[in-house]
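Case study.
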Amino acid sequence: MSKIQIIIDRKEPSNEEISKRKNFDEIMRKINLSRSLLRSPWFYGAIGFSGILSFILLTF
Amino acid sequence: MATNLNYHQSSLVLSEELTIIEKAKRNPQFFAPLYNKYYEVIFRYIYKRVDEQESAYDITSCVFVKAMGALNKFEFRGVPFSSWLFRIAKSELYQSFRDQKARRTINIDSVTIVQMVDEICDDRSEENREKLLKSLTLLKENELQLIEMRFFEKRSFREIGEIIGLTENNAKVKTFRALAKLKKKFNKQQYE
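After joint prediction, the assembly is written out as follows.
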């Protein structure tokens, strides 16, 4: 498979088509999801646990 | 050469954008006007560089999630907010190519092909058009990017510079170097 593909005269989607795909609520949902994950004690707990586990595995 | 008039904005518009950004840093809901304003230009920038329309929508969505997540790091430098979004779009595009979620694509129209052939030689033959397309695929990514932005998308050197983080003059110099490289690749094929 060639690395770069060339498309000539491809039809551009109309402004209306593109507008229909706008979904700010979906973006907000993803932002809130990542923020709630960062605020979750489980997130830091999992990082801490894997850190300790890696330390033990590397040391012994 | 026509320039992208939507890109160049008055200082009043820039300061209005800055106010929205400052509000959005405190509450992401305030980002909505910027999302609505720039969604289409970012989508079209991505669409021109990927093979599938759905991938372009997915990457566009990732760009805005990334932008909103990193908004606190945004520093106003007197240029349109879109230049920051374009930089994120560029990095998201490369990530998609690396992850093989999208394929690097050059979207070009027949008129631009003829204009580009005219830049390189006097003969608009089918053979030369083919050679031009082949030469484009032989360029390095950063060179191709400059050619795309200047000759396919008709962006000003100022805008190109702001998108790729160069001065206007540097963007101009690098674009002409990329064009010279394209000509070299094209001519090399003449003798192969």
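Observations recorded in class. The CA atoms of residues 44 and 51 of chain A lie 10 Å apart. The radius of gyration of chain A is 23 Å. We will return to this complex in the next lecture.
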